[in-house]
Amino acid sequence: MLKIFKIVALLEGVSYLVLFSNMLIVKPTNIELYKSLLYPIGMAHGILFVSYIILAIMLKFEQNWEFKKFGIICLGSLIPFGTFYIDKKYLQNV
Predict the structure, then answer these.
(1) CA dihedral in degrees (59, 57, 87, 16; nearest 10)?
(2) Distance CA 35, CA 27 (A)
(3) Residue range 23-62, pLDDT digits in tens
(4) Residue 90 falls in which region: left (phi positive, over 0), alpha (psi -120 to 50) or beta
(5) What is the pTM of this model?
(6) Whether 59 contacts 28, CB under 8 Å
(7) CB 21, CB 42: distance < 8 Å
(8) CB 17: neighbour CB atoms within 10 A?
(9) Alpha helices in the chain (DSSP H)
(10) How far apart are CA 37 and CA 19, in angstroms?
(11) Helix axes of 31-63 and 2-21: crossing angle, nearest 10 degrees
């Protein structure tokens, strides 16, 4: 299950960055393209975010993570590039 979590974490991080780039780069230049991309990118990111949190909860009990480690892993999904840092720092040695 850890391998699936790593894949979801990577995809969630990439979708977060794509969502930000859509808001910061595409919106000022082409509002119609922005509106057409917002729903599919936002939906994909939302599904990946929920999957990330659910898998983190499941792994907390499976791997017997401390609450502090679990909290940091969950907070990593809220920060840009956070999931990449979490993978490097907390999930490489597991």
Answers:
(1) 150
(2) 8
(3) 888 888 888 888 898 899 999 999 999 999 999 999 999 9
(4) alpha
(5) 0.88
(6) no
(7) no
(8) 15
(9) 2-21, 27-29, 31-63, 67-75, 82-86
(10) 9
(11) 160
